[in-house]
Fold this protein.
Amino acid sequence: MQHERVLVLDFGGQYNQLIARRVRDLKVYCDLKPCDMTIEEIKEYDPIGIIFTGGPNSVYDADSPHVCKEIFDLGIPVLGICYGCQLISYMLGGWVEHAESSEYGKREFSFIKESPLSADIPEKSVCWMSHTDHVLRVPEGFEILASTETCPVTVYGHEARRIYGIQFHPEVVHSEYGNKMLENFLYKVCGARGDWTMQNFVAEQVENLKRKIGNKRVLCAMSGGVDSAVAATLIHRAAGDNLTCVFVDHGLLRKYEADEVMSEFREKLGMNLIKADAGERFLKKLKGVSDPEKKRKIIGKQFIKVFEAEAKKIGAVDFLVQGTIYPDVIESGKGKSAVIKSHHNVGGLPSVVDFKEIIEPLRDLFKDEVRRVGTELGLPEHLVQRQPFPGPGLAIRIMGEVTREKLETLRDADYIFRDEIAKAGLNQEIWQYFAVITNSKTVGVQGDFRTYENVIALRAVTSVDAMTADWARIPFEIMEKISNRITNEVKHANRIVYDVTSKPPATIEWE
Ligand code: XMP
């Protein structure tokens, strides 16, 4: 079944993926595509509505991205946001003013005329502005629908042509009724039905996969992370025992993690899951190595070798599963390069497995949708809401050489940190939180004894995509509890420090 779908044309703004996620949250499937799509491609895509995103350019820049003018004659509703809003006005004969200074932050705006976009929204509310240029005169036949004190054309549109522009960013949470405006555009202007739900997705995917896989054999590498866990569970629904999963335990996972994976997937779900216990092998290869990039390379290489040995035992398969998700396949705004990120864990696998075809059942989904699919499939919340965990695992959270003793100390400290964050109910707000074992030892006094032990650093960040991050403001009382527990309960740790650096200039991980 073909879902109704919206086309989000990407003009290079920073919130573009967020727009697409909002639309999908409103139960309408959409794709983020480069803005230079041709009119034929757009017709073939057959959207129920088109959204132009924001972007860093001014419509007057010589190389600013434009769209083909015929787009406005297709009879398909169009909504322009920020740069998109200015572009519509510019292309249809309105006037965009090149302002001297930028307007940035929260502003109160008022609707001055009712329209489908303003349904069920108070006359005055707060919006989030981030622009330099703005529309000064709307194109002929268009009406001004809302303004702020400084921005006369905040929302404008043409009801019969179903074309609208919003100068602010309705997709960000600071715009009080922004989501409602997007909903109004989808349901009241485009006439959406809302057929994109994770329940539908699971039902359709299982049917499609059953048809595709039939009685053939499937192989999947499981890391215990959200994507591979959800991909494997989905395939398992369709393929049952024809699916074999291989879980390489490199011995660098967090406390209890390997056991949790085995118990959840093999015991509870009855999956055909093989665990390769390779902890010793990895430790041996990492002996004496302290350079972070060398550690990564060694781990990546060994991971593939261990997987290859397991795959050989299984023999030829028809399909290899990859946990690729939508952000990995989106093309950039200018449509030049398709950025395919291959997770280091699985990137090299196709070359060592004897298979015919790759299947990527999560290719169309954003991360939050993957989590919802996991819930829909009955996976427990602690697994589905798992924070990102790097492929090289704890090796890049141990400064210097990785040793068994350091691994143990770090695991215990990290476990307490995560436990207290979860107890405080902060695990959803914080993007990633973990302990690091630094390369420093300091003097302490524990009981009546002088100690000379490791400094443990705690790292907790908020972020939307890991590209930038801020350190999380964890309340002092919780910090106090964590610090007391670690120094009391964990061997070889006598001092706790908290990392108060954002990214940039630091990275999230210490190595
Ligand atoms: P940084 O440290 O670069 O991390 O700010 C950004 C995000 O990527 C994760 N990360 C990795 N993930 N292999 C991975 O699979 C790696 O080598 C790796 N290094 C960093 C990190 O945990 C954060 O979420």
Summary: Residues 333-346 have pLDDT under 50 and may be disordered. The radius of gyration is 26 Å.
